[in-house]
Amino acid sequence: MQKMRKKLLVIIISVVSFIGIIVIFGSGVSNAQISNTDSAKDRLQAIKEKGVLTVASANDRPFAYIDPQTNKFTGVDAEIITEVARRLGIDKVEMKYVPFENVLVELNKNNDIDIAADGFYVTDERKKEVLFTNVWYKEPEVIITPKATKFNFKEDLKDAIVGAQNKTPFLDLAQKWEKEGLIKKIKILESQSELILAVANGEVDAGIIDYLVASYVLSENKNLNLKMVTPYKPEIPGMVAGAVKKTDATFAEEVNKKIDEMKEDRTLIGILKKYGMDEGNFVSVKDGNILEQ
């Protein structure tokens, strides 16, 4: 059992997160900092002078991570923001690793970080902290359980211990279910890899997680003894976007123009399809305008 636990840990960590990596693409990147007193110099002008767009991420697959084989910044969010950067005239992109629970905090306090991207759901609570770009795509939550379990439907969870990641809408949903008596107890995990491992090892009966993460992990690990609960009707809208500092409204507007261009010329749906998504995950220019929501 101990051997199997270690094996699962290695598999899951390798699939979901490679922690502590900071990679700069290209050479000769300046260390110039953006002045706090001239935050929008504007931000885009300052980024161009710096020569690199710096993206804060928790290095999470399949959103934004460093591929250990190619050493390249990749993932659905990574490809979207890299294309945005290219269209803005920025050829170099840097990923700065920050633990997920601290990404938005670090974005606000570290003026060298230009944008955060890591499958962030747009929520009212997060809107208090940051300014979101227009929506990039949507993807719902799912429930995962061991393949052999008595918890096969959401209605079965009233006797279950359910895991959820800290500081996510999934934890908010689990807490709502607990108050309503729909689940027995919550176990809070600090990362998606810990959550998946807890479900696989039976430390929790089920877990609430991103559909995209669950789909990716299960497709990459055919022997992982987990499944998604179906049928299940998602309860979180799951609108995903990038985040910038509230003082960087001008920069956000420029990013939004490029996001909308990518939607209109179908570049964005092309990226989504590379990661197993389809038209159901696509959000139109009209529906993706955060300022109108």
UniProtKB/TrEMBL annotation:
CDD domains: PBP2_peptides_like (cd13530)
Pfam families: SBP_bac_3
Keyword S-adenosyl-L-methionine among record annotations: no
Record keywords: Signal
Record-annotated Solute-binding protein family 3/N-terminal domain positions: 52-278
Sections of the chain in a coiled coil: none
Origin superkingdom: Bacteria
Record's protein name: L-cystine-binding protein TcyA
Gene: tcyA
